[in-house]
Design a protein that fits this description.
single chain, 5 helices, five-stranded mixed barrel, 2 domains, OB fold (Dihydrolipoamide Acetyltransferase, E2P), three-stranded antiparallel beta sheet, 246 residues, de novo design (two linked rop proteins)
């Protein structure tokens, strides 16, 4: 078995025995990996506190055969995100990020862009100059794009015609915005204001857009749209949705 090195974000841990635990990690090099940390529950172990939730760490693990847990041999803390502990909305947003990465990605399917976006989001959440809702929305739109579910925003998801800045809606089933002519064909369509439509496009295209100020009304509308779209695609509402603000 070859030893693999990676930078990993701890998404979830579960006790396995009196001394060991299972960890779900999101790595830049390999995507999601599930590892067995033998001795990981001991007060003094090779992993110390590197397996704390939402810790960025440097790991070494042994790849096992298909269907088996990989074996974690080393884990050292690379970075923590202390602002999350001082800002409850930011902490819930971070837990939501961990849930999406854990439950909605495949093992050993790397997305370096998504990894980088997740880390940058965690670094910025809780900062006084960064609004939690828009920054989280930016992460979700990158996640959707990386997984192949980027919503249609420039053209109608029903007919393909370019949309104007008004008189349209968003349909999770159709996969994006609808022009006024197509709205009646999709029962799940919800109204989309010009301001929210423009903000979604900016958040999707501009890495710095999560720092731009948005009105409370627009933030609520974006949160509603993304909640519905993510729930539709996952087939269930994420557990952290009720705790997310706008």
């Amino acid at each position: 078995m070859a030893a693999e090195k990676a930078v990993a974000l701890v998404l979830r841990t579960t006790d396995w025995s009196e001394t060991s635990r299972i960890a779900t990690l999101w790595t830049r090099e390999f995507g999601k990996v599930r590892v067995l940390a033998k001795g990981g529950r001991r007060l003094k172990s090779n992993f110390e506190s590197a397996l704390d939730l939402l810790t960025l760490c440097r790991i070494v693990f042994l790849r096992k055969s298909s269907g088996s847990l990989d074996l974690l041999t080393e884990a050292q803390v690379a970075e923590r995100f202390p602002r999350l502990l001082k800002n409850l909305p930011a902490l819930y947003a971070a837990y939501y990020i961990a849930e999406l990465l854990s439950d909605w990605t495949e093992d050993f399917d790397p997305h370096p862009t998504l990894f980088d976006e997740a880390i940058e989001t965690l670094r910025s959440l809780g900062s006084p100059e960064v609004a939690t809702g828009p920054r989280l929305a930016r992460f979700e739109l990158v996640l959707l794009r990386e997984l192949g579910y980027s919503p249609a925003l420039a053209a109608c998801a029903g007919c393909g015609e370019p949309v104007s800045a008004g008189g349209f809606a968003f349909s999770p089933a159709a996969g994006g915005v609808l022009c006024s002519a197509c709205v009646a064909k999709h029962r799940d369509a919800v109204p989309l204001s010009p301001a929210a439509w423009a903000a979604l496009g900016e958040l999707s295209d501009n890495p710095e857009s999560g720092r731009s100020p948005l009105s409370e009304e627009v933030r609520r509308e974006i949160r509603q749209i993304l909640n519905q779209y993510v729930t539709y695609l996952m087939g269930r509402p994420p557990r952290l949705l009720p705790y997310l603000g706008s």
